[in-house]
Amino acid sequence: MKIHMANILNFMVRYIENDYNINPLGWYVDSLLSSINMLDGLFDTDSPTADPAYWYDWKELIEEELANDNSIVDEENGLTPEQGLVAVQFFLHHRYWVKDNDMLLKDAHADLIREYNASKDNLESSQLWQEWLVAISEGRKFDKLFSGEPR
Q: What is the mean pLDDT of residues 114-134?
């Protein structure tokens, strides 16, 4: 199953918001990046991320949305959940961590909401969307983990 890339962007904002709500005082972008780091089968688990809870949270977010709206599926141009999480990691790393590796997650979330609201009427021509497209291209490079197929 592949999810439309605009929906993955929305999931990223919700994912950060959910994570921030768990620990609103001291969670850093760096901490989230470390937790969702894709391990590419390094460990023998059912999770491709360093912290399996983050993978399950990501999948749950997508599954909940699918139960409400199956129009988010885009088999032709979309991303797998794994590719989507790689895109999220790339985007957060390049938009926030590279500029300020001590940035609080709440500040990154506030920036995303501000940028999204400022450009929602013309999202596809915004700087936010252009940065997201670069992240999407990185996500597309990622093969599905645990497929049993040679890489």
A: 91
Q: Which two tokens stand for residue 101?
A: 């590796």
Tell me the β-bridge partners of 49. 38
Summarize pLDDT for 97-119 with one digit per residue, the tens. 888 877 787 888 889 899 989 98
Count of C-beta atoms within a 10 Å radius of residue 81: 20
Task: Give the global pTM.
Answer: 0.80
